[in-house]
Amino acid sequence: MKMKIIFFSLSLFLITGATFAQKKDTPKSIISEKVGIKKYHDKEELDRMQKGQLLELYIERIKLLVKTLPYIAFATKPGVTMSTLGIPNTKDNRETLNDEFEASDAFLETTLNFQRTMLPYSDKSNLIAAIIFYEDTMKSLHQYSEFH
């Protein structure tokens, strides 16, 4: 009985280790799966929103652009990996991609801290214009992917 428990424990440990080892080497998506606009807004709709809602929408659009724009030479939609593009899935390439994601996250954190502190002082009409501009930029990315 004791031998069965030891064997079962050892087998479970080896299976778990193999599973985690395989996940580490799987290609990552270049554009996060969490990136996407659920709804585009028009000026009239934005005019009806409270300034707090506009601030959050503005910040959401910034996140989206930071996580998408630097990679449009590779892809404009989530799900594209290095392997999909023919980039070797080597340790060095994975580390480079991870470094890029970490740098983008650090930049985004600093930018969002600034935005949350300073944006409340902005004009509502400027926020609306910026949101429309950001959304138009995202629409352009979708058109870009159709031409490519």
Architecture overview:
66% of the residues lie in helices and 0% in strands. The chain contains 5 helices and no strands. The chain has helices at residues 2-25, 43-48, 51-66, 91-118, 124-147. Helix 3 (51-66) packs antiparallel against helix 4 and helix 3 (51-66) packs parallel to helix 5 (124-147). It is elongated and about 70 Å long.
Features:
148 residues; mainly alpha; 5 helices
The largest sheet, given as strand count, sense and whether it forms a barrel, is:
none
Write down the overall mean pLDDT: 85
Estimated structural class: mainly alpha
Question: Count of DSSP E strands?
Answer: 0
Helix fraction by DSSP (H/I, runs of at least 4): 55-70%
Low-confidence stretches: none
Assembly classification: single chain
- Radius of gyration using CA atoms only: 22 Å
Annotation field: number of helices: 5
Helix and strand element order: HHHHH
Strand content: under 5%
Q: Sum up the overall morphology in one term.
A: elongated
- Termini gap: 63 Å
How is the topology of this model organized?
Elements: H1 2-25, H2 43-48, H3 51-66, H4 91-118, H5 124-147
Helix pairs in contact: 3-4, 3-5
Short recap of the structure:
The chain is mostly helical and 148 residues long.
